[in-house]
User: Fold these one by one.
Assistant:
Number 1:
Amino acid sequence: MSLFITFEGPEGSGKSTQARYLKDYLQQAGYPVILTREPGGTPISDAVRRLVLDGQWTAMEPTTETLLFAAARAQLVGEVILPYLKLGGIVLCDRYADSTFAHQGYGLGRNLTELREITRFATGGLQPDVTFFLDLPVEQGLQRKRKQRDDFRESSQLALPLPHLPQPTPSQSEHWNRLDAREIAYHERVRNGYLEMIAADQQRWQVFDADIERETLTAQLLAAVQPYLSTIKTLS
Ligand code: TYD
């Protein structure tokens, strides 16, 4: 047996950090586990990531954006996720198809039925066994992200200047991308979209309050993952 766990949540909810802790824990406990993320996770998907998140592409059509996320996902599923699951491993993925439903569906107003078809085409219908949703009020999450962006700017300005190299721009920052820059109402629609999906499928989703101590949340996630581990063979 294998296990496919995805992490979802509004911007700045800390899911990437939590996913890393969970991966370290599972690895130390002897489980075969990989952590990947969307968009990204393979050289091709990373190239698509740079394109789709780059702040300079203000004219990008919602349909283009949707198909780029789907393309990055198709590559990640085919190259990494499915092969690892077939080996009986645990795959942790920081965002997956629910991000498309939340952002391009609820956020940008793309038709949800069409998004489901595109997603099925891109993933061959691969669904997570469980999805952890780290919830945080939108404004609070965006504030956390703005702070990360400002810290990034400060640290890149402190570096010794090399005049022939262009200074990094916010659009090149991992911490503030084209989608973060969307208005607050967009992020509210995204969060409400997640809450609607969760209400409709409580079997798969597990919701956590992300506005708590980092260690406490990690402990909660470790406890939540335990019941799924019984079918996974450890490496030793
Ligand atoms: P990232 O820097 O990875 O943000 P986060 O730390 O919040 O995960 O940027 C990914 C962005 O892409 C994020 O704003 C959510 C968005 N996104 C979509 O709009 N649709 C998708 O299908 C995926 C996977 C991500």
Number 2:
Amino acid sequence: MSGNITFTMIKPKAIAKGYMGKIIDQIITGGFTIKALKYTCLSKEEAMEFYAVHKERPFYNDLTGFMSSGPIVAAILEKENAVQAYRDYIGATNPSDAEEGTIRKLYGTDIQANAVHGSDSDENAVIESSFYFSERERV
Ligand code: CMP
């Protein structure tokens, strides 16, 4: 059965370009309810832990370096069938393949700096949410 939460991060380049407010607004406009929200930084070690599932991939070092290069926004989002709904809403991983009007098309630069992360499964949504948020940090 599909869960009702997903986890997202607004990535450093989108923050640096001033898109934080626009992206949060688009998330809310899409019918996602914010259950937790944090503006913070990842150390390189924390980024490596967060993306450990990709540790064998050739882009792992670059990706974790990038994700620790500046502030990010982390959030837990709620909606029916949240993981798939959010993946559809943000668009394809590579912004150049993403549909017009999606967050990644509008605010992404390339496959690494693709504006936002979105969980790829209900299981990972729970793991990723717990990586950032305690129970008392959630509404
Ligand atoms: P994200 O949703 O944060 O989850 C894993 C990230 O790995 C993904 O977005 C991309 O930014 C990155 N990624 C996936 N595939 C590649 C690739 N082929 N080259 C570089 N980065 C990638």
